[in-house]
Fold this protein.
Amino acid sequence: MKTHEKIVEAMLFICATTATLSVFLITFFIFKEGLPILSEYGFLNFIFGKNWSPTNGEYGAFPMIAGSVSVTIGALIIGVPMGLACAVFLAEIAPKSVVRVFKPAVELLAGIPSVVYGFFGLSILVPLIRTQVLPIVQKFSPDTYTSGYSILGGAIILAIMILPTIINISENAIRAVPSEYKHGSLALGASHFETISKVLIPAARSGIIASVVLGMGRAVGETMAVILITGNMPRVPGGILDSVATMTGTIAMEMGYATPTHQKALFATGIILFLFIMTLNISATAITRKLGGE
Amino acid sequence: MMNLNVNTESTPNIASKKWIAGSTKKKINIGEKLAYIGIYLAAILTICALVSIIGYVLLNGLKYIDLDFFTQEPSSMGRQGGIYSIIIGTIYLTLVAVAIATPIGVAAAIYLTEYAKETKLVKLIRFGTETLAGIPSIIFGLFGFVFFVIFWGFRWSILSGGLTLAMMILPTLVRATEESIKTVPQAYREGSFALGATKLQTIVKVVLPSSISGILTGLILGIGRAIGETAAVMLTAGSSLGVPKTLMDPARTMAVHTYILASEGLSKEKTFATATVLILLVLFINFMANMTANRYMKKTKVEA
């Protein structure tokens, strides 16, 4: 009886290690495929090279890194204030009946497949930017041109996609602030809004920052929505109406027909993306731990 | 410690009057009102975004859906016909992923909640599971491509795609199961032990049955993720249009089909129709997940 229980425990343990093992395997294989070209081509040449033209054997990933970064920053500029406002709304302002409707709505937002977001952006935002936004911009700088496939479109869709992450984690952080803080502030004569902005949000800042960092990770890693909206032009962008290619988009688009060397270069791009995401996720965990411990 | 009166001190010449006329309050109120309006606006915008995305797809897509759309195979690259083979592909792939991930995920959760002590190794396991959840799908796609498709020689197939998807949904399953196992009252376990049951018997006959709805929730969420996934599936299961017959056949899922139709501009009508089916499925899955989640929340509340 005892041995049989021991065996089961060992099996359960093996299952528990699967996820961690997967992470190691993923890291190992992505690096194994991508590192050779990184060392051959030069790491700095690869990440700062401005030309990505696989047919000529030029692999400069800078345009894609710039593309990913610009779309992500755009998404954060739109998504963070909105998400934080919604989190405050849910945690402090909305009556219970509204929360009961709003929360499933946010969950649903997280559940919509990214390709549907991409399709929506492609058929609504892209034409809208071309026909509505462009004429307004042209009034101020007549030389501007955009096909509609742009950083702006990608940023708006990504902002919506990262909302659930920001809203959920920030809301939990705000709710986790001890109610004594709130009551103390109110007792000192502060209004409800002053209490929110000067007591609750500062007290919940670790969770809020973590939510933003995780949202950033989601935006950098997002593929299908971005691929359909940003135009996939591997060029360093000059403005928010320019088309860009992101790291994720380039990998997904070119993997299907890539030659062996080109494929290795895509894996090298994968390494850069992987490092980006790992840094973000680990710092999110660290922030929660460090500030949460105070 | 905190400057609660920053707003009131900004304009001294009015400030003297404020005390008398009581307009201090009014001034704060205007600033606060604007902030509240901003907050309400953000909330309304969020709902609007959700409603317009779902509404746009459904309004344009529902009219193209009929029985033929589900029963006919796609023809001329998907411009005509239905999505029969694609539905089959989606179901196959999801089933394979869930069949692989569920036992492993549940077992992992049992280990983490019932057996694990807080050693370094267990901390590493938790960290690994968390990390796996944060890896973007395109990286899973790249990995699945070199590992399953090339290294193991599974080629573009349901098996490769299913294994990759299983890795992706594993953290969801572990987390949901862990959460529900934690809600099982300690008294249940003690009662079982007191009756002479071993640890394993207690887990199998007492803990697991009490946390079944949590496991179901994780399962449903995993299915949702598997159905909506595009990038990883495209790189590991291919995008062949034929009806898959064995595990080693390539397949195209609804999400991949939507992407290919949209990106290549093959047929707006079919894109809307496929996206509609996808959205309806997601709505249904979310509804189910909420139902099961609510059930175990209520149950444990009553018992606690």
User: Anything to note?
Assistant: The two ends of chain B are 41 Å apart (CA to CA). Confidence is low (pLDDT under 50) at residues 1-23 of chain B. Chain B touches chain A through 85 residues (CB under 8 Å). Residues 23-61 of chain B form the longest helix (39 residues).
